[in-house]
Design goal:
single chain, mainly alpha, transmembrane, exopolysaccharide synthesis, globular, membrane
Length: 224
């Protein structure tokens, strides 16, 4: 299954999942964050240019709300020669990571350009992580229900799996492990949260997201 297949069997997007109030909060938070982080983003862009040249940004098609594909923005973590269609996961010791890329992967600062996706309305501040097309076929067996929610920059699954690369056993194919263990665990975490979310709880997860960026994060319940 790919993104076009998901669109043909498109899950309905919950009308209450992302109303006017949440959209207003998204716009306010994203706008403020862009202003605050603009100097840092400029430094990252310059560092990437000096290290390897263009492009500075990495664009990749992801699965959005209702199964609709959209282009997601990130700072480039890999070498210039690595395109968007290579190995879909970043694992420990990934040889594609540059020196700046390792810093971005550790801090998650590579995600900052997604504030533009939030302003465009393709993403929210809080929502399920948008999945790459390589795993679009995993949305089945009830897990496709998560597609009714707008994907987010932060959220329970993103924060609980803050150090996801550490959880891949060396003796197991990482793609198979992601499909069979990590992907279902993350979606079930999201499905346990978003149907009962409130604006207050979303704001609490924003605070937890900040704490996760500064190296605090609870252990992920992989066996859910």
């Amino acid at each position: 299954m790919n993104a076009s297949d998901l669109s043909l069997h498109r899950p309905s997007v919950s009308s209450s999942a992302h109303g006017f109030a949440r959209r207003s909060i998204d716009l306010a938070v994203a706008s403020l964050a862009i202003v605050i982080f603009a100097p840092l983003m400029l430094v990252i862009a310059l560092a990437l240019l000096l290290e390897g040249g263009r492009p500075v940004l990495f664009l990749q098609t992801r699965v959005g709300a209702g199964g609709r594909p959209f282009r997601m923005y990130k700072f480039r973590k890999f070498g210039v020669g690595c395109g968007p269609h290579g190995h879909p996961l970043t694992v420990m010791g990934d040889s594609r990571l540059t020196t700046i890329g390792r810093f971005l992967a550790a801090t998650k600062f590579d995600e900052l350009p997604q504030l533009w996706n939030v302003l465009k309305g393709e993403m929210a501040i809080i929502g399920p992580r948008p999945e790459s097309l390589a795993f679009a076929d995993c949305f089945r067996g009830g897990l496709e229900a998560v597609l009714q929610y707008k994907p987010g920059l932060l959220g329970p699954a993103q924060i609980l799996f803050r150090h996801e690369a550490h959880f891949f056993p060396r003796s197991v194919d990482p793609i198979l492990f992601y499909r069979e263990v990590i992907f279902p665990a993350k979606v079930r975490i999201d499905l346990s949260y978003y149907p009962r979310r409130t604006i207050a709880s979303d704001i609490a997860w924003m605070a937890r997201g900040f704490l996760a960026v500064v190296s605090w994060a609870p252990s992920p319940p992989i066996d859910v």
